[in-house]
Amino acid sequence: MKSLYAWGAIAVIVLTSTAGDVLLSRGMKQVGDVGELTRRIGVLAVLARVLKNPNFLLGVLAMATAFYSLLFGLSWGDLSLVVPASTSLTFITNAVAARIFLHERVDQRRWMAALLVAGGVVLLAV
């Protein structure tokens, strides 16, 4: 039963971490070039702009959820399973989410890497 809980935690980690990455990326793209903005309007104004961005705030919330899910997952499963499985599956879902939600170009080499990572997860799971 603990193994089922561990895999459930891994699923939550992967989904919330990917959502957090996408939301943070979208939010920071909406904010703009932080270096240029800092020179133009100052650090505090840039910080205020970042903290007012709803995508950024939701991304931070999603990443916090992923972190606490990792803690639960580690209490239910082995470190040697939970961490590699969650990070490698997050790599795969990030590639898919970047393509779908951020309209980024994901090249063939990255897709091949994602497939190899998926094979590693399968080897871990059996």
Quick synopsis:
With 126 residues, this protein is mainly alpha-helical. It is built from 6 helices and no strands.
What does this structure look like?
The structure is a single chain. The chain has helices at residues 2-31, 34-41, 43-52, 54-76, 79-100, 108-125. It is mostly helical and 126 residues long. It has one domain (2-125). It starts with a helix and ends with a helix. The model has no long low-confidence stretch (mean pLDDT 91).
Tertiary shape = flat
Low-pLDDT parts are none
Return the structural class: mainly alpha
Strand segment tally: 0
Strand content range: under 5%
Averaged pLDDT = 91
Task: Give the ordered list of helices and strands.
Answer: HHHHHH
Q: Helical element count?
A: 6
Radius of gyration: 17 Å
The termini sit apart by 16 Å
Biggest sheet details: none
Helix coverage percent: over 70%
Tally the structural domains.
1
